[in-house]
Design a protein that fits this description.
Structural class: alpha/beta
CATH architecture: 3-Layer(aba) Sandwich
Shape: globular
Number of helices: 7
CATH superfamily: Vaccinia Virus protein VP39
Largest sheet: 7 strands, mixed
Distance between the termini: 31 Å
Oligomer: single chain
Number of strands: 7
Strand order of the largest sheet: 3-2-1-4-5-7-6
CATH topology: Rossmann fold
CATH class: Alpha Beta
């Protein structure tokens, strides 16, 4: 079950989040191109933590079905109103309930794994929901690897409702959790100047 504090935070910031411009368009587009290159037209894709649905709207048309999910009612409201390909379906639900309708060919988790209350449970659910050979495609902030000054700032911002509940992961923590769930990591990289946001493509063994 999602923490009510997290729901309130994301509901509150949903409109501002939707209006925010992508800071590094080239890096974002490069990531989307990589994701798209790993999918085929017949794929069924699950996205957890879809936010306001911008990624689903941009690349969901490349597959047969893109199920975009988020726990925040306000995020889902905006995502459902966003023009998107017919293959995109936006559903409000917790990450634990998002896997209904399995199996999937790919599970996408963009900037969400550091936000889930139980990372191991979500990764285990993703493994169970994927077809053999299916992909977990994720991008995750590893806050614990950031400088001490930034890390000290986050609790203060959270106290004033300006930062969401989030796990303090290292890159090593993230890799260990993905491998412990049974995945094989095929690709790990970063896009642009943010070297603490790790893009990982992991595969369920066949």
């Amino acid at each position: 079950m999602t923490d009510s504090t997290a729901t309130r935070f994301w509901d509150k910031v949903a409109d501002k989040y939707a209006a925010r411009q992508v800071k590094d368009v080239a890096s974002y587009e490069a990531m989307l191109a990589d994701v798209t290159s790993r999918l085929v037209a017949t794929d069924r894709v699950l996205e957890i933590g879809c936010g306001t649905g911008s990624t689903a709207a941009k690349i969901g048309g490349h597959v047969a079905e893109w199920k975009a999910t988020d726990f925040s009612p306000e995020m889902v409201r905006i995502a459902q109103a966003r023009p998107a390909p017919p293959s995109v379906r936006v559903v409000q639900c917790d990450a634990t309930d998002a896997f209904d309708g399995a199996p999937f060919d790919a599970v996408c988790a963009f900037h969400v794994l550091h936000l889930v209350p139980d990372l191991r449970a979500v990764l285990s659910d993703a493994m169970a929901a994927l077809k053999p050979g299916g992909l977990l495609i994720s991008k995750t902030y590893c806050f614990a690897d950031m400088g001490l000054g930034l890390r000290a700032l986050f609790p203060v911002l959270r106290l004033f409702g300006m930062f969401p509940p989030a796990a303090s992961l290292t890159e090593a923590d993230l890799r260990r959790a993905i491998l412990a769930a049974g995945f094989v990591i095929d690709v790990q990289t970063t896009f642009g100047q943010n070297h603490h946001s790790h893009y990982i493509v992991a595969r369920k063994p066949t």
